[in-house]
Amino acid sequence: MRDDAHSQRGDVKRTDGKAVSRVSVVDESPPRPGPPEGAADEEYRWHSYAVHPSGRPDAVRFVDTYKSFGRSHVLRGLNMALPEGMVSMILGPSGTGKSVCIKHMVGLLYPDSGDVLVHGRSVPDMPDDELFEMRKKFGLLFQDGALFGSMNLFDNVAFPLRQHTEKGDDEIEEIVMRRLNEVGLGDSRTRMPNELSGGMRKRAGFARALVLEPDILLFDEPDSGLDPVRTALLGELILEIHREMIEEAKRKQREHLPTFCVVTHDIMSARRVADYINVLWKGRIVEAGPAEEMLGSENPFIRQFLSGESQGPLTMD
Amino acid sequence: MEDLILTPRGWIEAFGEIVRFAARMLREVASLRVMRFFGEALRQAGILIVSSTLVIWGLVFIIGLECGIEGAYFTYGEGTPAYSGVFAAWCDLRELVPLVFGYMMAAKVGTGIVAELGSMRISDEIDALEVMGISGMRFLCATRLLAALMVLPFVYLCSIAAGFFASYLAVVQQIGYVSSGGFFLIFWQFQNPPDLLYSLIKAMAMAIVIVIVGCYYGYNASGGPVGVGTATAKSMVLNLVSVHLIGMLGTQLFWGANPRAPIGG
User: Fold this and answer.
1) Cβ–Cβ gap B134/A163 under 8 Å
2) Which pLDDT tens digit goes with each residue over B138-171?
3) CA–CA separation, A137 vs B243, rounded Å?
4) What is the pLDDT of residues A260-277, one digit of tens each?
5) CB of B107 within 8 A of CB of B203?
6) Is the ipTM beyond the 0.85 threshold?
7) Secondary structure (3-state) at A201
8) Cα(B141)–Cα(B29) distance, rounded to whole angstroms?
């Protein structure tokens, strides 16, 4: 059923039963999609659905994804892509399903209908063992770091290495300390998570997400609860580490370039960090494209949201 | 009226979910996939030993004392003080030690699991595990069940010893209406080796249910700290009911047809 839907849209072509990534291209003027069931066309009048090309293959792609929790319809026919090798942002007002998107990418949630593709492979169709294997491609920084409360900082960061690799203690120590030093926590290795501030927990979560050198790194609201200066510093750290990882991936000739995805509603972070921006509202993408094009968008909703003004289509409703 | 129909339906649905969850946990252990995290299972076993054994033995010891004291005075009042060993042999082994073991397991271990897994769930730690490619069910739940299976038979056998010892102390050393030899004559006459096995089966059934119920409510906790509190309370209620059901059904199954005292006549 799902395969039929793909082939009708021509979004994903499968050869020998395997899906392949495609390159994002400018909308070839298909008919404008209708509103989701139960919604008025008026509600989606600012959704231009325009996708400006990134010129890169998609690391992650949502295809007509629907997800509801009881009466709350969160994703309502979402089509969205995260281009490979870029720092992408999913921007949107609070409560539009940004974190839900992240959970779909790593298979913590499954769509009610539609598909989520990671490097061309359908996540909802994966059997459990393959899913756990696929998740090793991901690093995820949770809002509060999600450090294990029963372990100190060093053990938290070393945990994925101990579970998934055969590395010896010395090598693990070297990798963990390199990552801890990168995020400025080298001196806190023996401290427990409850002894750390919110910002430190986020940075520790960042270090833990990095140790397995993931292909795709997801950040769930990294700026929540941080002051503007620390938010800016964290943004710089994200960019710096992305640059390093890209160089390393090129040197090692890895199959996929590292893709970062930051979910936030903080416009300043978006301006500083993003290469590519997806603006999400009411469960669909309003408009998506490289940051410079999005920041110059003529769409009144995008302009209002990216400039943080109170006047415009977005209201308290 | 609608509530009267909906509430039992909710219970049945919840029961079905617990059974499905239990089947997954047992499959993880039986298929030995949990052995990938044997180190974690050993750590959990260590936590069980260090944090729960003394309190279980302590409670069983007190119950053994009570059982002995009441038995001694009752048999003395009836003119058969030599038979006070019956209480230790039957009351301790068959009923009170398994029940008290179940109570303390539910209160100490079951609620501990709910609180720990529940707080891990609401602080995204379980999601973090899953995103690292580690099955939370296997790493958190199956390892705890394996630890319980490795450790609790020994803890329980020691509990029985503590109960017997307490009854002996009360009957022979404290009250002294019967000699040590007289006490043991009746004590051993009223039990067979299979009784110990049956008692162990009862207690282990309770322990397995308690660990599964604890894991279920913790693993599926939602609604923030209040939700974890509610889940802990629910698990305690279900565990206490389960402990009594297992106790009652076990007695009926193992000793119901005992020719010395057939239940039901």
Assistant:
1) yes
2) 999 999 999 999 999 999 999 999 999 999 999 9
3) 44
4) 999 887 788 788 888 999
5) no
6) no
7) helix
8) 10
Q: Using the 8-state DSSP alphabet, how is residue A31 labeled?
A: P
Structure tokens given for B7: 């509430």
* DSSP 8-state assignment for residue A151: S
User: Does a structural domain hold residue B244?
Assistant: yes
Sheet holding A216-220, edge to edge: A50-51, A284-290, A276-281, A87-91, A259-264, A216-220, A138-141
* A46-134+217-222+261-303: CATH number: 3.40.50.300
Instruction: Check: CB of residue B118 under 8 Å from CB of residue B227.
Output: yes
Integer Cα distance of A256 and B47 in angstroms:
43
Tokens of A312: 């415009």
Instruction: Considering only the beta carbons, identify the residue of B119, B123, B132 that sits closest to A144.
Output: B123
Task: Tell which of A142, A202, A261 to mutate to test the B interface (max B CBs under 10 Å).
Answer: A142
**Tokens found for residue A273:** 């960090």
Sheet containing A72-83: give its strands across: A72-83, A58-69, A113-118, A121-122
CB contact under 8 A, B127 and A163: no
Name the one residue in this structure whose structure tokens are 């322990």: B207
pLDDT, position A273: 87
| Structural domains in chain B (count) | 1
Range of the domain at B159: 34-253
Q: Cβ separation of B133 and A142 shorter than 8 Å?
A: no
Contacts of B115 in chain A (CB under 8 A): none
Where along chain A do its domains lie? 46-134+217-222+261-303
Give the separation between CA B106 and CA B101, rounded to whole angstroms: 9
